[in-house]
């Protein structure tokens, strides 16, 4: 009998093969699997044949044997699940796991042989665990056996904790960082917020019991993250949306006991817009956006103009048109001021200021221009007697050639005003018109901070009985994010295993999103009347089918991801540098997101809901994932050796590429992450160099960036009147001039995630704070100097000097 026949017959392990080889005077040339084994009767057995037989045997186990899991579901028997569990136990005990690979393989074989001797086709999960523990004892790995048992026990305890209402409430009462600082927009000391956090704690525990066990377990383990567990699935809330303000203002709506008719002035229209936001934001957990707000409000500004013109005629004013324009302009300015104050003083039933986003910038009529100017003037002015920076609404200014990009464009003066606002208030962000179309298929503002809808296909429109693509009135059903670094860590540097694990986790993510869709579909329109009955997202009957507003890809669902840098670093080490990066590592990272994008496209077509890849704005998740992974894989270089994971596809925050290098690197990833994307650069105080700021804006257009924001120094000390950047450390922020660290006399603004925030008044979670502290500037000084010492000229983007500076 040849050796391969012996292997096949006895299901021998590698260690047993070695013993047999010694007995039969078989010479093993090398440990490498590609080498050969020589038999004494001159027959030759190539070791790869042994591996093929071993793989075939494993396949036989996988297809013929099944496992009863804790939730009583049936799963296929997989050898690698035992291998992974044993490997983690060894890793807890020994510093160099590579020295124990052969023994781990032996233990797994012993375990499987114990199970096979029972002649059963199905095993309970506890039987498998007992077999593993007994095998570890058999080979006298007592400490590893203890580690394995402790790991399983801790896993069971953690799940019980997370699904316990008492446990979640106690975390809140103890002001656990995971609860009170999870959302930097929530002030945990306010009664309304305390009530929301209490309800959220209960909903989290209930939600984990509602979720399918495999999804709940994956969420607890940190493999995936079910976003906004404090709202869903305990309730059928959806995420964010583009509210159809034009429809609601034009056709009227009902709020509470009041039937509201179409407004006759701009002042009334803006007041109604605030009321709509209050109602809809209380019935969803994500951001509310008004797109093309200047164009939507312009007809009501025109009505106000006619009213003022009528008054001028009645008073026999000589220049009646001039009077009407002056009064309309004043009304616009006052309305925009009232709107900003209203939003920043409003508390929704979610215990926070609504996440509000305004898209504007494309209108060129007199009324549209004045509304744009009014929005920007109010943002520059600030709030209150101290002129503090307004956090909301988030402003998205659209850049488009022929409208406002170049000096001869009709709205170029408004672009200049927007740049002044950025220098003063770090707002607005910009949408590059043509690039947004290239990435998503049509132009629209984001839903909330960065979620984007895709254009509706002719097939979807036909199925819906509609004739043209649109964005307003559409929404997002929710996000489930993938922990990319964890997949790389679990694969132990084996790329073949990585790709297999990636597909497994993607399928898990898909299943979670499908559950999310089914959960939201259980809602009735009367649960969210402003949104589903009176025009916000549609006009359905109270007990109608909300799926009419979701299906045929009208609504999106988001496949989020975190930590592309750290995932890639597990295989390539520190692959991003100040001005260069490892091309092979880049290509690997790109291939992963491309694979996700292809999966999303296939599932979108298969299920009829807008699956799309989403660069997660991991406000606290970048810390949560890292904390979980650090316990399993402590201090892995460039992965778990810092307190946070990098957001989505962004360049690692400690590196210092030029703004142009960073934009060039990130632009291709925006196109793949078409369900949610944003890029930013960190700059010093730019008050003396408006032209340099404009050059960076313009270059973002040429680089293919769709959505772009600039972080710059705009802090203000109210005690010594310092303007610039506060010094930050893990303890907080203080004025570099006088040392002031009092949040009441400091106006400190940081980009917490997609939104601005005041970290002194509402501190973010530890990991996010660490990420903020580690951010470095991508340009030096106030005159726009690059690292090579050259100055950034105002027309650099137009003169193609950028490449020269980069090189």
From TrEMBL:
One Pfam family per UniProt: NRDD
Any one of the GO BP annotations: DNA replication
Entry-annotated residues carrying Glycine radical: 754
GO CC terms in record: anaerobic ribonucleoside-triphosphate reductase complex
GO molecular function: ATP binding; ribonucleoside-diphosphate reductase activity, thioredoxin disulfide as acceptor; ribonucleoside-triphosphate reductase (thioredoxin) activity
Entry coiled-coil feature ranges: none
EC number: 1.17.4.2
Keywords: ATP-binding, Nucleotide-binding, Organic radical, Oxidoreductase
Name of the protein in its database record: Anaerobic ribonucleoside-triphosphate reductase
């Amino acid at each position: 009998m040849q050796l391969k026949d012996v292997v096949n017959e006895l299901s021998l392990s590698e260690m047993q093969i070695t013993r047999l080889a010694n007995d039969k005077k078989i010479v093993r040339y090398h440990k490498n699997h590609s080498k050969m084994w020589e038999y004494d009767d001159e027959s030759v057995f190539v070791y790869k044949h042994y591996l093929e037989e071993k793989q075939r045997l494993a396949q036989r186990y996988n297809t013929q044997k099944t496992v009863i899991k804790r939730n009583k579901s049936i799963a296929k028997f997989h050898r690698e699940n035992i291998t992974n569990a044993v490997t983690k136990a060894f890793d807890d005990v020994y510093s160099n796991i590579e020295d124990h690979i052969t023994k781990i393989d032996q233990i797994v074989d012993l375990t499987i042989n114990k199970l096979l001797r029972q002649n059963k086709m199905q095993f309970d999960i506890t039987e498998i665990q007992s077999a593993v523990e007994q095998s570890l004892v058999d080979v006298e790995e007592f400490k590893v056996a203890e580690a394995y048992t402790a790991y399983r026990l801790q896993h069971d305890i953690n799940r019980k904790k997370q699904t316990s209402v008492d446990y979640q409430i106690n975390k809140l009462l103890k002001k656990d960082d995971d609860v009170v600082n999870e959302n930097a927009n929530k002030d945990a000391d306010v009664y309304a917020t305390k009530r929301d956090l209490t309800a959220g704690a209960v909903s989290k525990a209930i939600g984990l019991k509602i979720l399918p066990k495999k999804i709940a377990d994956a969420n607890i383990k940190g493999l995936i993250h079910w976003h906004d567990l404090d709202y869903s699935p305990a309730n059928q809330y959806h995420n964010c949306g583009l509210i159809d303000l034009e429809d609601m203002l034009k056709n009227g709506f009902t709020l509470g006991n009041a039937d509201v008719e179409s407004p006759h002035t701009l002042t009334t229209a803006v007041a109604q817009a605030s009321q709509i936001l209050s109602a809809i934001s209380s019935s969803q957990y994500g951001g509310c956006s008004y797109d093309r707000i200047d164009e939507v409000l312009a007809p009501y500004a025109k009505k106000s103009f006619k009213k003022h013109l009528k008054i001028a005629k009645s008073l026999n004013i000589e220049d009646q048109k001039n009077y009407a324009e002056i009064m309309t302009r004043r009304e616009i300015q006052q309305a925009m001021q009232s709107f900003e104050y209203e939003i920043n003083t409003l508390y929704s039933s979610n215990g926070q200021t609504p996440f509000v986003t305004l898209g504007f910038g494309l209108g060129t009529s007199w009324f549209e221009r004045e509304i744009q100017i009014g929005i920007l003037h109010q943002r520059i002015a600030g709030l209150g007697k101290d002129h503090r920076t307004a956090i909301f609404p988030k402003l998205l200014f659209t850049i488009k050639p022929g409208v406002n990009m170049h000096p001869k464009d009709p709205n170029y003066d408004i672009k200049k005003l927007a740049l002044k606002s950025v220098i003063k208030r770090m707002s607005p962000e910009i949408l590059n018109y043509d690039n947004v179309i290239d990435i998503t298929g049509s132009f629209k503002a984001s839903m909330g901070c960065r979620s984007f809808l895709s254009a509706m296909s002719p097939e979807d429109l036909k199925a819906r009985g509609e004739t043209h693509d649109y964005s307003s009135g559409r929404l997002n059903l929710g996000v489930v994010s993938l922990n990319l670094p964890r997949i790389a860590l679990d694969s132990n540097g084996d790329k073949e295993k990585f790709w297999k694990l990636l597909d497994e986790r993607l399928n898990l993510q898909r299943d979670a999103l499908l559950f999310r869709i089914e959960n939201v579909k259980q809602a009735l329109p009367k649960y969210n009347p402003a949104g589903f009955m009176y025009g916000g997202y549609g006009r359905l009957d109270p007990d109608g089918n909300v799926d009419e507003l979701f299906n045929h890809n009208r609504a999106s669902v988001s496949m989020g991801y975190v930590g592309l840098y750290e995932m890639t670093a597990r295989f390539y080490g520190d692959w991003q540098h100040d001005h260069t990066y490892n091309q092979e590592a880049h290509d690997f990272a790109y291939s992963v997101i491309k694979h996700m994008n292809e999966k999303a496209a296939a599932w979108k077509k298969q299920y009829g809901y807008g699956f799309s890849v989403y660069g997660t704005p991991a406000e606290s998740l970048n810390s949560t994932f890292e904390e979980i992974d650090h316990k399993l894989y402590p201090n892995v270089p460039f992965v778990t050796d810092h307190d946070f994971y990098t957001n989505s596809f962004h360049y690692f925050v400690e590196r210092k590429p030029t703004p142009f290098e960073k934009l060039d690197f990130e632009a291709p990833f925006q196109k793949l992450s078409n369900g949610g994307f944003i890029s930013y650069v960190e700059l010093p105080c730019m008050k003396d160099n408006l032209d340099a700021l404009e050059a960076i804006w313009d270059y973002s257009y040429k680089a293919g960036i769709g959505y772009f924001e600039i972080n710059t120094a705009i802090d203000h000390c109210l005690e010594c009147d310092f303007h610039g950047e506060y010094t930050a450390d893990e303890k907080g922020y203080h004025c570099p001039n006088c040392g002031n660290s009092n949040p009441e006399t400091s106006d400190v603004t940081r980009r917490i995630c997609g939104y601005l925030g005041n970290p002194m008044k509402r501190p973010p979670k530890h990991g996010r704070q660490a990420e903020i502290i580690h951010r470095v500037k991508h340009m030096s000084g106030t005159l726009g100097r690059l690292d090579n010492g050259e100055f950034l000229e105002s027309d650099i983007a137009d003169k193609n000097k950028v490449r020269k500076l980069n090189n």
